[in-house]
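Backbone-to-sequence.
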């Protein structure tokens, strides 16, 4: 008898290949799949998919689609040789699943708004919630001040910092600057701490995330920049902060103290810089040491292509060894203050006195903004609409101007500097009334005044210093010297240039065509409308990622943030339906034949419609608590339930849903017996029961006889699962055993590596090559291909049930919280992302995921169905 040869089929939809509907396309790894399935495969990364046959990551033409891949000519030739046209389509054992009738795997969340690549780029910078505490909050608006915090000691924070090349010590001071906000609407679903930070990052503009990347880069590469430790969120109000290194002490006061002590003065009662008489012994050394440190710190910033455009003493910090560091957090805060004052000045048009007063505030915060930066900001606010801009772009020279102002302040003191720069800021409003040439003449007059003050302070002996400072204040940035040139000039005050053998710093600064200015970046941008106070922002949850909070802040395009239930994580809203018919704890849930089956301690099995979730029938007959239930999809659909007394009931599922059981029998009992705790089905032939006598029994569904007893567990068998020819059994002895369904022989034992530390297994879930087990102590263990991949303490109490479907993992138990996690990773590493949770009013005892819906059974007898509504 000639055997019919099976045709090649797609490994995804199992449809026979042909040259019309299912064209085989060859992937770079050599395996083939049909065009329709390749279009549906998710992109792991940009232009990368995972081969469905060998699971390798291979390149994929994202824009051209699978049609750009070569056809498998050999397969098509073989198919044609078999003359498939003579085959009756109705006799084919495969179904074309690429059409409209194809079953689709329903996700619990309709759509994630961040990709795998996005999560991978930011996950390592999320600090644990218990790693940072706020020590002191500022009196200004939340986005316009840097909070003081400290590093707390905890196991989670230690684990987070241990992966870095540097990490802070316990109780170390840090600065916190708000960069975003994650508001959590009033809903049943609560985002996890990590997911809320990811959601806040996802809401930022791409330019804002780019700026965060620049801060991380400069922090990692430059030793004179305060270290960036990560992102932390205040769980109470959802504010997301940049956490950076903070050195103790106010920079200005410490600078004043250091310079006065260096020259032998008394530092008691000093509140500012009094100016220097460089002819006095030792004072030139103090100035030169501070000046070179400031230049070196600024050169570190410039070497990464970053500029501030506006500097102040608050932008720098002393470390414990007296070295000066650039504080990027303070630069952001100062930039927001400057832009805030400019914005307020724009709303005061027509009132010259008020405008002058607002510009004078720039002097009060002791910030030195270069002319070209101020022109750029004024033009943005349309104050200088009549006169245009300065004609110069923001670059390294902008910081040189600000640096020169700081050095001038060191030389002439606080009071003289205040008078000088108050005059500079007051002439700015006149730009809108006069042309640029008129302003330039005013600026030259101001520069002459500065030069005169420096001449009185420095004298002829330090004329080179006076000349280079005046060059730094040139209106044209191209005429200003580089930071290295300023550094050399100041350093010559300490070391004779003829005897200086230290290597040149010419290579330190990489002159880039493109530079990024912090002050002009989106992270310093303020909305033009009035910013509410921080109390209102925190209460209303309307703080924008850019630091503003307008009245229409909840509107993003055509959507409202307040109505987006999980606020950017997915599209849709979480709904729930209550199913109430049981009087006691729900033990198990099962679906099949268009029905939902629930078993309970009230000795009943209830049947519900999956169409409208109406209650259809109560199956009664058990004399003890019903512990497990399964559905058998045979010629005659069956429901099988088992109780703590050893009774096994078979119910016929038909149109009438007869209340009487089709068959009943009881397991044999002895002195060890404590009932049936778990059921599992293998096809339509075998029923497996997990019992309190430590055994697993196999029963024939043809004649309901005992066919095999499997022993090996040392305690009650609490959970059973069947998948791909393997029976998985979990036990209170803390182990999971695998059995072959062919001959019921033992295959392997998992979870016995911790001898003497028994944690009972309460629930199992198997999906593809993944096995997940929950334990009484709140621990969850995950295996892939029988290899342990992850073991973590998820809950503080017992996890009674879990459900897994694809990448989603649901857990619930004693703590009355449904925990939702997303599984990801590769062959070498598994990551469990905390997505969120659903707080409940009762202990969770049963979980089931089906067709995008989560069925939850509670200890009080209630069943809830959770689903996301995409409308």
């Amino acid at each position: 008898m000639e055997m019919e040869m099976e045709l090649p089929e797609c490994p995804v939809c199992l449809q026979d290949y042909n040259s019309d509907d299912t064209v085989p396309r060859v992937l770079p790894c050599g395996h083939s799949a049909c065009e329709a399935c390749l279009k549906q495969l998710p992109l792991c990364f940009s232009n990368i998919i995972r081969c469905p046959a060998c699971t390798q990551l291979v390149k994929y033409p994202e824009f051209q689609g699978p049609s750009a891949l070569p056809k498998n000519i050999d397969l098509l030739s073989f198919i044609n040789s078999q003359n498939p046209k003579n085959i009756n389509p109705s006799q084919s054992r495969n179904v074309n699943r690429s059409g409209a009738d194809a079953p689709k795997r329903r996700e619990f969340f309709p759509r994630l708004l961040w990709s795998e690549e996005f999560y991978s780029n930011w996950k390592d910078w999320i600090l644990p919630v218990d790693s940072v505490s706020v020590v002191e909050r500022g009196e200004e608006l939340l986005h316009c001040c840097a909070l003081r915090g400290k590093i707390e000691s905890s196991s989670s924070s230690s684990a987070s910092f241990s992966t870095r090349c540097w990490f802070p010590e316990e109780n170390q001071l840090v600065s916190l600057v708000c960069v975003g906000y994650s508001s959590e609407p009033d809903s049943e679903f609560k985002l996890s701490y990590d997911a809320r930070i990811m959601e806040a990052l996802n809401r930022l503009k791409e330019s804002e995330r780019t700026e965060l990347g620049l801060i991380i880069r400069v922090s990692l590469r430059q030793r004179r920049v305060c270290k960036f430790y990560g992102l932390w969120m205040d769980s109470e109000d959802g504010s997301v902060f940049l956490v950076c290194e903070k050195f103790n002490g106010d920079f200005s006061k410490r600078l004043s103290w250091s310079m006065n002590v260096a020259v032998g003065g008394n530092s008691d009662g000093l509140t500012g810089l009094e100016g220097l008489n460089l002819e006095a012994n030792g004072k030139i050394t103090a100035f030169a040491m501070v000046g070179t440190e400031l230049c070196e710190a600024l050169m570190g910033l410039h070497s990464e292509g970053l500029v501030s455009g506006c500097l102040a003493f608050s932008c720098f910090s002393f470390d414990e060894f007296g070295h000066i560091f650039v504080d990027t957090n303070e630069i952001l805060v100062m930039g927001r203050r400057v832009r805030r004052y400019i914005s307020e000045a724009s709303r005061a048009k027509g009132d010259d006195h008020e405008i002058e007063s607002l510009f004078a505030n720039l002097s009060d915060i002791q910030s030195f903004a270069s002319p070209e930066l101020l022109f750029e900001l004024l033009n943005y606010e349309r104050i200088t609409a009549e006169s245009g801009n300065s004609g110069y772009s923001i670059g390294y020279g902008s910081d040189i101007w600000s640096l020169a102002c700081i050095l001038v302040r060191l030389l002439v003191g606080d009071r003289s500097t205040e008078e000088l720069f108050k005059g500079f800021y007051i002439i700015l409003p006149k730009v809108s009334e006069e042309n640029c040439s008129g302003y330039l003449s005013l600026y030259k007059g101001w520069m002459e005044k500065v030069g005169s003050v420096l001449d009185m302070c420095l004298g002829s002996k330090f004329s080179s210093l006076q000349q280079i400072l005046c060059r730094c204040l040139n209106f044209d940035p191209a005429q200003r010297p580089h930071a290295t040139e300023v550094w050399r000039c100041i350093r010559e005050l300490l070391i004779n240039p003829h005897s200086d053998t230290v290597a040149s710093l010419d290579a330190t600064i990489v002159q880039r065509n493109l530079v990024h200015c912090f002050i002009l970046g989106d992270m310093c941008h303020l909305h033009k409308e009035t910013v509410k106070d921080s109390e209102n922002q925190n209460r209303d949850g309307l703080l924008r990622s850019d630091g503003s909070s307008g009245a229409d802040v909840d509107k993003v395009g055509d959507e409202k943030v307040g109505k987006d239930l999980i606020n950017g994580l997915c599209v849709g809203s979480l709904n729930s339906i209550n199913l109430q018919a049981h009087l006691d704890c729900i033990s198990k849930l099962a679906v099949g034949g268009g029905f939902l089956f629930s078993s309970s301690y009230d000795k009943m099995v209830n049947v519900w419609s999956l169409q409208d979730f109406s209650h259809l029938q109560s199956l009664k007959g058990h004399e003890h608590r019903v512990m497990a239930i399964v559905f058998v999809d045979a010629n005659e659909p069956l429901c099988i339930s088992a109780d703590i007394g050893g009774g096994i009931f078979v119910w016929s599922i038909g149109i009438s849903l007869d209340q009487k059981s089709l068959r009943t029998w009881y397991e044999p009992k002895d002195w060890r017996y404590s009932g049936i705790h778990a059921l599992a089905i293998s096809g339509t032939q075998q029923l497996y029961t997990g019992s309190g006598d430590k055994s697993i029994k196999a029963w024939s569904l043809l004649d309901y006889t005992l066919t095999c007893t499997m022993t090996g567990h040392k305690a009650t068998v609490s959970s059973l699962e069947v998948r791909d020819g393997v029976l998985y059994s979990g036990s209170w002895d803390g182990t999971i055993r695998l059995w072959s369904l062919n001959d019921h022989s033992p295959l392997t034992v998992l979870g016995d590596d911790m001898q003497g530390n028994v944690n009972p297994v309460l629930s199992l879930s198997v999906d593809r090559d993944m096995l997940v087990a929950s334990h009484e102590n709140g621990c969850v263990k995950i295996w892939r291909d029988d290899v342990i991949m992850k073991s973590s303490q998820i809950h503080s109490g017992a996890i009674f049930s879990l459900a897994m479907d694809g990448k989603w993992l649901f857990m619930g138990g004693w703590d009355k919280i449904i925990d939702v996690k997303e599984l990801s990773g590769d062959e070498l590493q598994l990551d469990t992302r905390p997505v969120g949770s659903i707080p409940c009013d009762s202990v969770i005892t049963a979980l089931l995921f089906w067709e995008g819906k989560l069925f939850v059974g509670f200890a009080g007898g209630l069943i809830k169905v959770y689903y996301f509504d995409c409308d």
